[in-house]
Design goal:
This protein has about 200 residues and is an alpha+beta fold. The chain is built from six helices and six strands, in the order ββββαααβαααβ. The relative contact order is 0.10.
Amino acid sequence: MAIYPGKNVKLSDKAYNKTSPIKVRLIRVELTKGQVEILMTSLLDIKTYPSNIFKALYCKRWGVETYYDELKNKLKVEHFSGYSKQSILQDFYAALFISNVQTLIVSELEDEIREENKQRKLDYKINKNLSYGFLKNRVIELFFTENPIEQPLNELKQLFKENLIPIRPNRSFKRNSGKYRSRIKPKITKNQKDSI
C-alpha cells in the first residue's frame, strides 16, 4: 500500500514532496478477546519479517506506548509555559528530569513493596499520578536545600508508600477505537502549565 503526506504537512525541509508515495505494509493482528488491530509498518520484506512476528513485537512495544501516555497525560509534556524554543525545551527536559527522578525513587522502593505484598491479598504498586505530584511540589527542596538530601527524600518515599494502588489481575476495558479520530491539536496558551 502507498500513502501520501497530508495536505497540511510542512515538507520544505524534506527530501520528498506531497506527490511522493510512501510504501507501507498493513498487518492484521487478532488480540486475545477476538478484537482486531491493524498495524502499519515500513518493514516490507515478507520473508525477513513474516506477519506472525508482529503481535509479539507489538506487545514488546507496549512499555514504550505507556511511557508516551505518562509524558502526555501525567506530565503534560504537550503544554508549554511559553512560546520560544528555549522555553519549550526547558519544559520538555524538566518533564524528563521529573520522570527520571520518580523512576529512581520508585526503583529504590520496589524490593520493599514486593516484600510487603507477600502479606497482602493483592499486589500493590506506586500510584504514578500522585508520585509525580508529590515530587513536583518538592523537587526544588530535594536538590537545593542546605539540609541533607535524605530528609526530603525519605519524606517522598513515605508519601509514595502511603499511596499505593492495587494491581487487579485480569482486568480489561472495552477499547474505543475511534476515540482519537476527532481529536484536535491542543491550543498552546501562555502559562497553561506551571514551569518546574
